[in-house]
Amino acid sequence: MTYEENLLALLESYKAGTIDAKTALEKLHAADYTDLGFAKLDHNRSLRQGFPEVVYCEGKTVEQVAAIMEKLAQAAEKAAPATPSHKHKEPER
In the predicted model, what is the mean pLDDT of residues 29-47? Predict the structure, then answer.
């Protein structure tokens, strides 16, 4: 399950009354980050800081960096594909 799917399931559980507000809050706090053992991924950094998580690669193996990037990709709410409105425009002369 992705990060977004987990949050939606949590909200649905609360809405359905299968968990109480205190339990939902505890689960929300637990969902704030993923601990990979060699790195903690902050999923809500962009909400708090206005800028998404940054990966500091120094001292990490290629496999560790790949695992971090995979988890961040899974947790991403949406990808922002390039569309015609996002393409580079030459300045007018």
Answer: 83
pLDDT band at 30 (very low <50, low <70, confident <90, very high): confident
CA distance 28 to 6: 10
DSSP structural state of residue 19: S
Give me the DSSP letters along 36-83: -SS-EEETTHHHHHSS------TT--HHHHHHHHHHHHHH-S------
Cα distance between residue 54 and residue 24, in whole Å: 28
Judge residue 41's burial from the number of C-beta atoms within 10 Å of its C-beta, 0-12 exposed, 13-18 middle, 19 or more buried.
buried
Q: How far is CA 13 from CA 4, 17, 42, 45, 51, in A?
A: 14, 6, 24, 25, 30
Measured in whole angstroms, the distance separating CA 22 from the mean position of its chain's CA atoms is: 23
